[in-house]
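Bench notes, afternoon.
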Amino acid sequence: MFAFIKAMLGVIAFIFFLVILILLLTWGYIYRTFRKIRVSTKRESERKARQYREETGRQRQQYGAFYQNRRTQEAQTSQSYETATGETIIDNRHQEREKIFDDSDGEYVDFVEES
């Protein structure tokens, strides 16, 4: 009977160590998988951030130059008016959009002069 108990303890010890080995192998696989996922998501987020910076930089160059050229053209344009007597008046004034009230005086509204 003592030999039987000794054999059963040996089988239980073998099964115990086998379960621990399987758990360690499974844990290693799960850990590597999560690590790969974490690294790939970090790389992807860095790639998207770099792409966003490049795209916005390109847009700033593109549209910044466009709006600068547009402002220059607006400043250089001249308007001509004809009076009732047939005289032509050419207006070369530079039209700026300036605030006509201080910020503390209330709501700011762009002033458009009607002609």
